[in-house]
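Researcher: Re-running this chain for the archive, since the previous output was lost when a drive failed. Same request as before.
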Amino acid sequence: MSEHVADESTIFETPLVEVDLGLRSDATVYAKVEWFNLYDAPHGGGSVKSRIAKGMLDGAEARGDLAPGDTVIEPTSGNTGSEIARLASARGYAVEIVMPDNAAGGKVEAVRDAGAEIHFVDADLGYDAVIERCEEIVAADPDAYYRPNQYENPDNPGTHERTTAPEIHEATDGDVTHFVAGVGTGGTITGTGRGLTELTDDAVEVVGFEPDEPLHAIDGLKYLKTGDHYHPDTYDESVLDRREYVSTGDAYDRARALRDWYQDEAVPVADPGQHALETVREHLRVDGQFVVGTSAGAGAAAVAALDEGGALADDDVVVFMLCDRGDKYADIPLWEEYL
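Model: Regenerated structure tokens:
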């Protein structure tokens, strides 16, 4: 078990910051800073997946699906695994995580730090092979394991519908016009999109984005556009009003542009969430740099694509997700020259 105790009270009510993406329109763009879930945890703080890790474990315990002595197992590209490992280990469960062998080093270390056992799968086999390996392990001893299954568990989108959506609605005073999120399990876009659609009386436009090709390096996202790819049950495409497709190069360029823009400028905090403003300012940066994860850069690219396509008006209010912080990616091309 990890020596680090996961402080679940820091999950939810994350800050909202205003970012300048150099758009043609005068639309206001906000980003929801999700590493403030478990912000003080080592290896980059928490992530957007801290929300569903808590939601799925809470739901499993309430239903009696997860009991003392069970081992929690989950396939992941990194963030869900680290967050499940942190929370489940702190609650006293043994944890096993199945992940590709090219996962970002910060995510791997976060899982190890939590005391979880890791099963690595050759990344060249594709992410579906990670899921298949997890299924094989469970099938060998089904009574020993509880798998939250982020790809099928309704507590994944349900947590976002109950928490992320009302947080965004409240922090923008109900003025949000566009919500932009990537598709991995589809839980964030599905749950938050549903919640905001209801809260705004269908006035919000829900925009999902995916990588533009199967072989990509945008962590946490799935390519679903063509081919025979696993489609998560947690992804309800009917919630979407629009789709965008983002290249790895554009995602990385946009992440670096945010770093460059705010190298000498303060990042405006629109709403600190549950945190003190001083805490937000302290944990926004890494070594003085505003560095974000690969999917956050992809979110910025998707917002820019909306703007370039003429889909944003000057009075629009756009919200996208900064799913995790850049120090989890210090060993990959995104930030290896910067951190």
